[in-house]
Specification:
CATH class of the largest domain: Alpha Beta
Structural class: alpha/beta
EC number: 1.1.1.399, 1.1.1.95
Number of helices: 14
Function: Catalyzes the reversible oxidation of 3-phospho-D-glycerate to 3-phosphonooxypyruvate, the first step of the phosphorylated L-serine biosynthesis pathway. Also catalyzes the reversible oxidation of 2-hydroxyglutarate to 2-oxoglutarate.
Order of helices and strands: EHEHEHEHEHHEHEEHEHEHEHEHEHEEHE
Domain D-isomer specific 2-hydroxyacid dehydrogenase catalytic: 64-383
Number of domains: 2
Bound molecules: 1,4-dihydronicotinamide adenine dinucleotide, 2-oxo-3-(phosphonooxy)propanoic acid
Keywords: Amino-acid biosynthesis, NAD, Oxidoreductase, Phosphoprotein, Serine biosynthesis
Distance between the termini: 39 Å
Protein name: 2-oxoglutarate reductase
Radius of gyration: 26 Å
Helix content: 25-40%
Length: 471
């Protein structure tokens, strides 16, 4: 069983001052509302300039929408904070998503929900997206960053699950097990050895030697395969695996080719007709990365011509929002042809769908969301610089934490510090990523009118993307 990530000990509600590096706090600790004039919590300033909320932060004000059946471990952790959590089993059609996203501060999704510019533009209150999965290609990361919306994911909690599925598929393909099973389900006994192989001694070619590819490399070698891999980055080989300099070389040499690259413009149709030409006759192709990586009509041709002896697909160019009919409703021209191929395994994007992986992802991403919402820490964010400040102690009363997300242009720090400089800045940190910078500062001995003044002045700067003040 997976070890759940360490519990973050954050007392529900009114906790802004207690969070940040709260991992060090005893799980049994409870925090009382510090006796200052703001009720001791903090407030979230929304991204809409017209609708300013200058009120102490209370977790109960935070609205969260979880889509795509995010694991209960994540939902529960968020609910324990006192947040208002709505959890749906499926993703939503774009128009419904737009309606729902307008209202929420946090959205949790998996791989299906497309948070493109059109959707994010409507998300006026959104401060953070949690991708309860590895891939973040479904989110317009750049638009989100430029509008002060942090995005978190779980970088490797389901890697092992994907690697194990691929190992299973290699053996199933090599033995034509899918076809034999289907035949017998339909009443036909078809005992054959022709074209069936052991995987021992065969060469596995891994495209993309990241978290999943490298994990798979170790498992495959343990089963007697030789491993070669191709990656745009020069990476340390595990075991006796060998990096090859070109994709063509990998395709020329591998008996099994498996794709583990992210969805990027450069990986779109990475395996198409010319690449099938390079593959060995009778080799196999596996794709558990993204549907855009393989040109399916080219795969159909390669299978029909006998160039490849089998394939396994876990991902598709378009995938449905919910379980149910797929191919019957599919608009894809190739759906029928794909289904009729010999020795082809079609699975419904289940590479990361294990109890272990989903539970671990639920813990990991919800913890990142809690840290961000309650303390502004961006550790692990994929689209913002990673910034944190130590948590405030109970002794540090009358503090406010300023979070100022701004355009990364010259002269901002001088202006920000002119605003903060009249107060006692206990600590401050800033960093940038591309065009966006993230500043955090803890100010002590401030009262409500100080906080209002600081907030208004920061909001007035032209560099401002998003200001939050937690107190
Ligand atoms: N089927 C499923 O349920 C799952 C699918 N995935 C997919 O698998 C992908 C890979 O996952 P990880 O291994 O965790 O990602 P990773 O980021 O750890 O590794 C990806 C590797 O691909 C390499 N790469 C990028 N562009 C390349 C190119 N043009 N040519 C060759 N190599 C290239 C990178 O340098 C990196 O080493 C994810 O992006 C996601 O889309 C991930 C988890 C579950
Ligand atoms: O983690 C990923 O990137 C995956 O592809 C798995 O996606 P899912 O959580 O099953 O929608």
């Amino acid at each position: 069983m997976a070890t759940p990530a360490q519990d973050i000990a954050i007392s529900p509600n009114r906790l802004a001052r207690t969070v940040s590096n709260t991992l060090s706090v005893s799980p049994t600790a409870t925090f009382h509302s510090p006796p200052n004039s703001f009720g001791g919590a903090g407030f979230v300033r929304t991204r809409t300039t017209g609708e300013k909320q200058l009120k102490p932060f209370d977790t109960q004000d935070i609205k969260i929408l979880l889509l795509e059946n995010v694991n209960e471990s994540g939902r529960q952790k968020l609910a324990e904070q006192g947040y208002q959590v709505e959890a749906l089993k499926t993703s939503l059609p774009e128009e419904e998503l737009i309606e729902k996203i307008r209202d929420v501060h946090v959205i949790g999704i998996r791989s299906k929900t497309k948070l493109n510019e059109r959707v994010l533009r409507e998300a006026k209150n959104l401060i953070v997206v949690g991708c309860f999965c590895i891939g973040t290609n479904q989110v317009d990361l750049e638009y989100a960053a430029k509008h002060g919306i942090a995005v978190f994911n779980s970088p490797f909690a389901n890697s092992r699950s994907v690697a194990e599925l691929v190992i299973g598929e290699i053996i199933v393909l090599a033995r034509q097990l899918g076809d034999r099973s289907n035949e017998l389900h339909n009443g036909t006994w078809n005992k054959v050895s022709s074209g069936c192989w052991e995987i021992r001694g065969k060469t596995l070619g891994i495209i993309g030697y990241g978290h999943i590819g490298s994990q798979l490399s170790v498992l495959a070698e343990a089963m007697g395969m030789s491993v070669i891999y191709y990656d745009v980055v020069n990476l340390m080989a595990l075991g006796t695996a060998t990096q090859v300099p070109t994709l063509e070389q990998l395709l020329n040499e591998a008996d099994f080719v498996t794709c583990h690259v992210p969805e990027l413009p450069e990986t779109k149709n990475m395996i198409s007709a010319p690449q099938f030409e390079h593959m060995k006759k009778g080799s196999y192709l596996i794709n558990a990365s993204r549907g855009s990586v393989i040109d399916i009509p080219a795969l159909i041709n390669a299978s029909r011509s006998g160039k490849i002896a089998g394939a396994a697909l876990d991902v598709y160019p378009s995938e449905p929002a919910a379980n149910g009919d797929y191919f019957t409703n599919s608009l894809n021209q190739w759906a029928e042809e794909l289904r009729s191929l010999k020795n082809i395994i079609l699975s419904p994007h289940i590479g990361g769908s294990t109890e272990e992986a989903q539970r671990a992802i639920g813990f990991e991403v919800s913890e990142a969301l809690i840290r961000y919402v309650n303390s502004g820490a961006t550790l692990g964010a994929v689209n913002l610089p990673e910034v944190t400040l130590r948590s405030l102690t109970l002794e540090e009363r009358n503090h406010a934490r300023i979070i100022y997300i701004h355009h990364n242009v010259p002269g901002v720090l001088r202006k920000v510090n002119e605003i903060l400089g009249d107060h006692n800045v206990d600590k401050q940190i800033t960093d940038n990523k591309n065009e966006v910078a993230y500043l955090m500062a803890d100010i002590s001995n401030v009262n409500s009118s100080d906080i209002k003044e600081i907030s208004d002045n920061l909001e007035g700067l032209s560099s401002r993307i998003l200001t939050r003040v937690l107190f």
